[in-house]
Specification:
mainly alpha; 4 helices; elongated
Length: about 100
Amino acid sequence: MSSAIESKDDRINLRLKRNAKLLLERAASFEGKTVSKFILSSALSSAEKTIQEHDLMRLNAHDSDAFFKALASPVQFNDKLLLAFEEHKRRVLDK
């Protein structure tokens, strides 16, 4: 039986004011974590939340209705879009 161990080779260094460090040390001690583990878990949690907020689209009932009506409607190209398609055909070579 073999188990893969992921090595921790990457580092992030930061500089901070003394009071910020003391605050992090205090918070880490409340959770029984090292400062590094506390910062990493807090940063990862924040990163996941930020990514979710940008990946997820939330619409109110009115906007949701308008969105789904637009999806269900047949596509209508206006003159400007048709010109853009023609320009694209002239400029881009298919391989």
